[in-house]
Amino acid sequence: MRAARRARIVGDTDLRRGRCLEIGPLANPVVDPDVADVRYVDVVDRAGLLAHYEGNPAVDPDAIPEQHFWLTRPDGTVSTLAEAVAADAPYQHVVASHVIEHVPDMVGWLRDVAQVLTWDGALVLAVPDRRFCFDVHRTPATVGQVLQAHLDGDRTPSVRAVLDHFMSAVDYSAEQAWAGEQPPTQGSHPIDDVRRHLARQQAGDYVDCHVWPLTPRGFADLMDDLLALGEVDFAVERLTATRVGEQEFYATLRRLDRSREPSVAIDDARVALAQLRSDLPDESPPARSGDGELVPGHLVADLERQLAETRERLTRVRAARDRARRQRDRARAEVATARAAGAAARLRRRVTRGLGRRPRPTP
Questions:
Q1: Where is the composition biased (Low complexity) (predicted)?
Q2: Whole-model pTM above 0.85?
């Protein structure tokens, strides 16, 4: 299962080519040192991670690797990603699984990633789909919120982010979502817990939370807006739908080609992104089946996507079959022509030999 998920995250990216940085691997790194030349970075060092997740049954402390770099300075302030890894950069690949939704300043973070990548480097993302996790009641992140956080220079999650997260989170799994179960209305954090986290945020602590609730189409829209505004240095090279039964989607972002006119590179990136978005299933609310039962909209959309993929595969198979038939017919025609030419040549040789053996007439 872990190997299959890692393959889905990475896609066609060859992590063995060049050096790699993984952000926030926690206890489940996507990139193992035996697979690629990888460095790890997190908000705090390994000791800080062990202390933060002590007693959490979902995190195996023995599986947390040593962090090569961390963002929190000795004085408690938080550096940027680019500042933390500057001495070791650049990298060919940056991998971030369930990270981008946590970063306080998405625009600043994407610029940091671009800064530590090679000129043609790639950012590989695994992102939780808000529809299939505790974010289900939250509205998707907007470009206005993203730019406000950047203009405010957020180094830690803002009051807005902390409150939206802890006030709205519910106990809701992907299995429940795909089964069509309604999410609970009761939040998973008591109000006293919310107040405690808010007080920590106001005191300057780094209160980890989901800052940016996202879906595949929402992410595409957000990246398109940021490209149009000239705020990001990435083209979206790959963007997947959330698989049935799962709760995350995957994206690969490639640095824009700096040898091209920026406006042209951005326009091309937006055209390619529009195509990726059009290939994604609809994310509309649930529809009703003919007998009046609710059919989850994401399930209908996924079935429609699978049908479209099947039709596309059938079209490719038919095209390949037709090409094979044409090649076969050409080969048969060439063989027939060759045989006819051979037969004619043999006939000519026999005639020639026959003429050579004819007796000469006597004088």
A1: 334-345
A2: no
